[in-house]
Write a structure and sequence with these properties.
Layout lengths: L1 H22 L3 E7 L2 H9 L6 H18 L6 H8 L4 E3 L12 E3 L3 E5 L12 E6 L5 E3 L4 E3 L4 E6 L17 H6 L9 E2 L5
Parallel strand pairs: 7-9
Antiparallel strand pairs: 1-4, 1-8, 2-3, 4-5, 5-6, 6-7
Helix pairs in contact: 2-3
């Protein structure tokens, strides 16, 4: 009888340890670039990715930008959230639209080491935008970065696919303000550049 209790206890402890290990967030190597040329230059100097992966990741970041960039009902509201000169109309950025909806300009992109194996709502690349504080943020506004260039390990959750904003109602001053501003709703801080 005693032997059976020990087996049950070890089984429960083993299952609990497995559950806790399964809940830990995977850390991935990530690198941020202000543009495609910077990524290609780093790739030629034994960077995290190859030049071909730079091209693939940049194209993915551009596609996510068009699909999921925050959208605002006026240039003034967009610039309040992303800084003066950091916004343009959907039409100017190749996202269609009539020019009455504004979105931040692409200020760089973040590449994760899961490139080529991104699945389950994950993207291997994320667009980066300026925030009102002079730093950078991801498309969902959940992580703030001190720079749009650098390399670090970070949570794979930074690569969660952002919600689509194309075709949705743009944020107004009131809706952006109710969140504390874009990039301030629970925004974690990354070690890339700050």
């Amino acid at each position: 009888m005693r032997k059976r209790s020990r087996t049950v206890t070890l089984t429960i402890l083993g299952a609990a340890a497995f559950t806790v290990a399964g809940c830990r967030d995977e850390q991935v190597d990530a690198q941020a670039f202000p543009d495609l040329a910077s990524c290609q230059a780093a790739a030629s100097q034994d960077g995290l990715v190859t030049a071909a992966e730079c091209n693939q990741a940049f194209a993915e970041a551009q596609a996510l930008h068009v699909e999921a960039a925050p959208r605002y009902d006026s240039l003034a509201v967009c610039e309040e959230q992303h800084g003066a000169g950091n916004c343009g109309s959907e039409a100017q950025q190749g996202a269609g639209g009539s020019g009455g909806i504004f979105m931040p300009l692409l200020a760089g992109y973040l590449i994760g080491s899961m490139l080529g194996r991104a699945t389950g709502g994950m993207a291997a690349s994320q667009p980066m935008y300026r925030n009102a504080q002079g730093g950078f943020t991801n498309a969902s506004g959940t992580t703030n970065f001190g720079s749009n260039a650098g390399r670090a390990q970070m949570s794979s959750q930074n690569f969660a696919r952002p919600a689509a904003t194309a075709g949705q109602a743009p944020m107004t001053r009131a809706t952006a303000g109710s969140r504390g501003g874009f990039g301030n709703a629970g925004g974690a801080r990354s070690s890339i550049g700050g």
